Structure formats: C-alpha cells, structure tokens
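Budget justification note: compute hours in this period were largely spent on complex prediction jobs such as the one shown. Inputs:
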Amino acid sequence: MSESEHSPDAAVTLAPARAVPRIRAVPWFAVALALLALVLPFLEGVPLIGWLASPFQRIQLTYGLVFGIAALAFNLLLGYTGLLSFGHAVFFGSAAYATGLLVKYLHVSSMEGFLLAGCVSSLVLAAGFGAVCVRYTRIFFSILTLALSQVVWALALKFFWITNGTDGLRIPTPTLLLGLVGVPDDKVRFLSFTYYYYVLAVFFICMVALGMIAASPFGKALQAIRDNEIRAQFVGIEVWRYRWSAFVVSGAFTGVAGTLFAPLNGLTTPDILHWTFSGKIVFMTVLGGFKSFSGPILGGVAYNYLETYVIKTTEYWQMLLGIILVALVLVMPQGIIGALGWIIHRRSGRR
Amino acid sequence: MSLLLAQGLRKSFGETRAVNGVDFRVEPEELISLVGSNGAGKTTLVNLLSGLLRPDAGQIAFDGADITALSVGARIRAGIARSFQLVNLFDQLNVLDNVRLAIFSRDGVTRQPLRLAERDTRARNEAMEILGEFGLESKWDTPAAGLAQGERKLLDVAVAYALRPKLILLDEPTSGVGTREKGVIMEAIASVVRERFLAAVIVEHDMDVVFTYSDRIVMMHQGAVLAEGTPDQIRADERVSAVLLGKG
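Corresponding output:
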C-alpha cells in the first residue's frame, strides 16, 4: 500500500471519506501455502511435490504445524510484549501431561476432552506463574520462567507413580469431533490424513485468534509496553496487568499445541517439560523471525524438518543445530521471513 | 478555584533535597513556564505532579480532589498528562499508532483483545486530526524511531495531548532542537493549549521562548520557588536576573 493511496490530508479535511479501514491484504504466498496444505494428502504421486505428500511427510508437517502454534503463542510474549520466556515448555508439556493423566485416570479418549483439559491446565499454570514472573523483565523474567518450569519438570520426573517418570504416559489414538470420528484401525492413515486435517483446522483457528489479538488495541498496548514501558504507563496502561494477560494467553495457546502433540507423538515424557524444549521453542521463533506475526509458523515447520534431517545425518546433531542457530542470528537476524522479504524486495526492485 | 494546588512538596534523594517545600498552583487555561538552572528541581516537581515519584511530604490537589496518593494511571484518568525531557515514544510503532494508542487507552478499549484496531475508524480519524494539529499528518506511517528530533518532540507532546487532559506537563519540549524548530514546536503547543482551553506547565530553558508564550513564570532555585509572576514581573525581578546571570 503506497502512502499516496492514504493521503492523510484527506483524513483531516474529509474525515468521513477517510473512514475506510486499512486492512493489510493477506499475502498471496500465504494463500498458496494454505491451499497446498489443504490439498496435500491428494497430491501423492504428483511430479515434483508428490514426495511432500507421502504419509511420512504429512506427519512431519503435522508436527511442524503443532510447533508453529507453540511458536506463534510464544511470540505473543517475545515479539509483541518484549518478554523472553525460557520456560514455555512447561505450558506445552503440562497440557500433554494433562492429556496423559486424563487417559490414565479417567479413561477419556475424546480429543476435545484432551484439548479442554490441556488448555485449562496450561491456563491455570500460566496464570500462577505469570503473576510471579511478569513483575520482572529481561534476564530476570527469563531466569524466573526457566526456574519455575524446571520445578514442574522435576515433579514430572520424581512423581513417577503418577507420571511414570522417564517412561512417560502413553497416549492412545483419540476419537475426534466428540466421537463422530471413531478410533481407527490404521494409525498411520489416521495420523497422516484425519489427524492431519484436524491439526490443520485447529492451527488455522489458533492463527486467526492470535492474529486478531495481535492486531487488536490490546495487541497494540503490548507492543507499546515492549517499546517503552514508562511511556506506556503514562498513556494509562497498567503495564504488569497487560503483561500478565499476554502471558496467560500465550501459555494457553502453547497448551493447545502441547495437547495436539500428545496423540501425534503417542507418548508424553518429561523431555517436553525440560528447559531444552523451551529453548527449542525459542529457536523456532527466532528461526522463523520473531519480528513478524507469521515468522514463527515458518520457524516451527522449518525447525521440525531441520531436526528430523539433522538427527539422521549425525549423532552430534545438537552441536550442528547450535551452529545453525549461531549462524542464523549472525546472518539472518530477521529469520526466514526476513530473508524471504529481502529476496522478494530485491527481485521486485530489479524489475 | 485552582486546577492544581500543591502545598509543601518535599522530595529528597539521599542527602540531596531536590524539591524542598514547594507550593505550586495552576489555574485553569493557564500556560506556566517552569524555569531555573539545572538541578533546580523542575523535573522532580513535574515527576511529583505526574505521579512518577511520590513526595516525602506535602499534598497535591487536582480539580478539587486530593491526588497525592493516586497512581500514574489514576492521575491520567483525572486529567493530568505529561511528556518527557528525553523523548519517550513507542519507537517500533508508527506515528499514527503512537497517538492512537493513547486514544485507545483513554477510551478503555486496550482491554479488548477481540476487536481490530484498524476497524476503529473513529480512533483513526481522531488520531489523524491530532497529528494534523501538530503538523505530523504526512508522517503518519513512519515508525517513531525514524522521525527527526523535532518531530519526535512534537509527537511526544501529541501523545500526551491525545489523552485529552485538563493539564499537560511538558518537560523541556524544545530541548535538543534548533532555534527554528523550537518556534514551530512552541507555536503548536501554544495553539492547542489555547484552542482547547488546557492548562500547561512547561519546563523550559530558553528565556525568549518563556517570555513569549507564558501567562505566568515560576522560577525555581535549589529545590525551592525563588520567584513567580507575569513575564514583565519576572523580567524586572533582580533575584531572577542574578540567578540567570550567575548561571551564564
């Protein structure tokens, strides 16, 4: 949108005529990606992109979308509110554990039941942890979130009679849509088709919801707090209350991701509560680009592929990932989305 | 009745008595300049009035109510807004959003996460109108960080003004800008203050500016009020010239 299209002079002199809201069009490549994701299961055997449609790849993409939700939710804190949480694994993991415990003790098998339990558990946890953490910023905030999440990790590890310790909790294949879609015989088919679409739908809902929150006056207030806490206070924003709200929303959506992860993985272990998993969420977000709304989605998907293939190549995969992260921060500080933007900008500049 | 009445204000930082027994009043629609050398206590006084600092002693009444114990937010709702000496803006937000945020906050809509900021045409139009009053309308889409110093100073005032206060406290709105820009900034401030019947307290060093625009001048020295009066009275006050000359 060029500036001349929105002549501000007209806004002043002809206020009513200016009453057309400025809504940024959804970029064409986002629409293309969404359509591709939608028809992907039917593209098996199609030249060039057929390999992407194999059941294995579709399950990989499902993992990627789940991580995409977590990274999007995480970025409401990092990119929008300016708070670097190093404990987001706790919301992801607690939701997965809530699912596991629901199966173990109440024999629930409905995915919607899982989502409700996962969401509520991460929300409650985020409300409590948030009340402690958001009074601090920068390194103090990061350390506090890390410490609190490690407490929960230790609990999951030590209360093994409840959580099965390092063995974790098994999550059977759930029924979907309140039992409308029953437990299937073919698990691979279920995960790569039915569950793929389920996750895609939930992903879409979460993306729209978080997008709305980010673009709301509330989202603007978060950005204001990120940019200048004192000034935010002096336009009447109760800084810590907004930080807390952002923390709770972020935690709850991360919980949605954790719940979706549980049946996909089939097992919930303390790994996903550990601080290194929090680090992964940070990695995904930075990889995709935390300065844009959609960057974390790309980051979540890309990270999952990266980890899957890097693990295959070397046993020192963590080191390789570490090197990639360092290189990334140095070469592409704006992440994948920043690099893409740069390429598109250059190409259109040349034309 | 005075709009603002502060009595016996004291604030110390360790051994330093930054504000030492100051009585200060602002009448409705009055433009007051607060002058004095560096360290005289001007900014501390503004911080006490705006709620950034709590006084060690003394009372502040605004619009007939005691606001001494009120938070920053409560004072803003009561009608006191301020700008800062070192410009405080939302640097990554554009100029329009800086002003719009103040409008959203004032109207209590920042608590609503499920409405789109862009859809609020009323807030947008009001923000554009305010930018027009400060001559910033052509910069609406520029991130605040990308503005020139003079423009940043104006935007800082515009953000405070968008809260529609009864009293606006401006801490050195023209510091760090060239002489020509100083005039532009002061003209913009004076015109909104007069047209909207606001009261303003402006901390200012440039005595030419002070004498041109003020209804009343309050001179502070070493944490206390040394002299106050109309520009003519201040011009004739020997204590003031002694301090000013001493400073020079």
